[in-house]
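Input set for joint prediction.
Command: fold jointly, output tokens.
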Amino acid sequence: MVTKKCVAMLLAGGQGSRLGVLTKNIAKPAVPFGGKYRIIDFPLSNCTNSGIDTIGVLTQYKPLKLNSYIGIGQPWDLDRLNGGVTILPPYMKQTVGEWYSGTANAICQNIEFIEAYDPEYVLILSGDQIYKMDYNAMMLYHEEKNADVTIAILEVPWEEASRFGIMNTYEDDMIYEFVEKPKNPISNKASMGIYIFSWKKLRQYLIDDMNTPGSNNDFGKDIIPKMLKDGERMFAYPFKGYWRDVGTIQSLWEANMDLLEESSELDLYDTGWKIYSRNPVEPPHYIALGANVKRCIITEGGIIYGDVLHSVLFAGVTVGRGSRVNNSILMPNVKIGDNVVIENAIIAENTVIGDNSYIGYSSEDEIKIMSDEREKNITVIGENLILPAGYRLEKGSMIDVDNYKLFQAVV
Amino acid sequence: MRDTMGIIYTGDSNVSLQELTLRRSVAALPFGGRYRIIDFILSNMINSGITNVGIITQNNYHSLMDHLDTGKQWDLDRKHGGLFILPPYVSQDNRGWYRGEIEAFHSNMSYIRKSPQKYVILSGSSMVCNLTYQEALEFHKENNADITVIYKEMKKVRKEDLSKHTIIKMDENNRVIDMEVKPANPTSDKLSMEMYIIEKRLFEYLIEECEARGLFDFNKDVLVRNLDKLKIYGFKYDGYLANIDSIQSYFKHNLELFNPENFNELFQHNGKIYTKVRDEVPAKYGENAKAENSLVADGCIINGQVENCVLFRGVKIAEGAVVKNSVIMQDSEIQEKVVLENVILDKDVIIRKGKHLVGQECYPVVIRKGAVI
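tokens >
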């Protein structure tokens, strides 16, 4: 086997339960994003753009869609003779089979995969973030600092610092303390969950951790604190630019809407750093006579007869005559009938909305909504659902195939 | 149809689209927002289950090779068969310049001989449609035909539109009894779509025979000359056909795609149309965008007004610009307050602020690749 300087391990096994019906049948990294992408396109494209061509993708929760999406990695130029992308599900061992019990455990169970490439460094990535990042620059920083582990950090607004895992550092960015969700943060350097480890060090810590009873086998909870305690060289790599964790309905919706800004902070047009995805085989989208499209993103295969305002439409979406889609995300192959109103909604793949429906209506006696309740205003509809004509759904509802009948508002 | 191979001839020199084909073959001409004409011909073969396709190139085949690459996008990167790009070459008995299809086929005879398939489907590269060949092949076998010509009845077209092509006449059993190549006064409306089915052994024989006699025109020398000797049958195609043989027809057929019937027949029937992917960002519409009756590909950024247009990938239309009845190819940029009507912009054209360009529906203004106005 050809040795590789750096192997990336992408944690893609999480359920992402906070995304509700959107991750009922698919793993979080496979959730569609930004009109033609899935979340995992971002770390995969970052890897290939950073020159990292050996990636293990750790899957566990509902991996079918993710597996078939990744395939042999061709869209990301990861169908390589040596390395490339490898899907790593949990597997049976001679005496016992076990699930991945934590992030560190998932890596530990795949030590053989990493060893095969005899890497100097291992890059740990998660599959639920939207950002563009040069991992190679981070690796050079890691080398320059002669670090054992380098953790990418983002300086977040101080008022939000208490929602993150915060790194306290010396002036030279050496980390001396790690506090998970501090009440009174003394730094605003939030961990992005992106780590580069010197492999030999990490290997030992992983094995030790597995032999520690009561451990959560988690990077944030166990490995990082233990390394800090042992006085290993740990550095914070400051990342600047757009970065969003899209683990919740609200954050997923907001990150999609960010793309509609005049000059979005997340520049997808940079030809030197393309975000690759598996392209649908569809003709260009068609905007019909009488349609009205403003401040929106539409991709191939779309057929638009109605009004689409401030929305993100994925491949193969149809919007019927007299319909209005506002502030919404319509995932691949969603079909909207005629005279439908869609407000502040996320509609998952292949769902069909019957004519004259109203998705996301607000009841009349509604008073002002508190800003921290905004999440309740986004209406979410699961995949593969066929809603009958005239279906009315109050805003903030979340429905799927199993319960949609219960939610239909009586007119 | 694994017993059938495809051969696409892209050297058609009697079709010229002025500036648009100066530096590319018709096969490589962009069409329909994100395709090139060869995509339709190739996809039809793939969708029929053909896995061995040879593409004969003549002049200006660089952009074609760049587009086709390894054939991966058409699922033709295969161990057995796959995609073969066959450029001209010079040897003792080969001048490297084909006077006609027969010379082209002959100089690629070793590829054809080596192919294990029993049947050959020959196709030209200027007819855009979405069809699969299974039915035609069945028809060919049932009739025990030597050669089957796929044709379409061209109702409501002018004589001039047929006189660049090959026209067939048939008896009641669909046997071709007469054939006119580029007739000044065509006596039938049955247009040969330049798609032929023939058993490979017979094909090899006919090509050798013509070559030996110094004949080089497939239609005249293989078909017309052998109307009595060979059983040539016509198979009728009923779907949408865009016959690209002039700037006018190119323009017309692009704008014809707004008709849902044509659009569906070309993109949703039979099979999907594959093309090279560019990994573009989805199209983005600004606050003041106004788009109606248009086909828009990925990578476009639209802030102005667009009506009855085909916009290829990566087209930028600035605020205040008005673009109507136009075909705008890849990566062209239209700046503020520009007015375009009945215009074809080739790739990478820049129209600077405030310029007005207005053509006629029957005579669009064509701007060559890379021009800055």
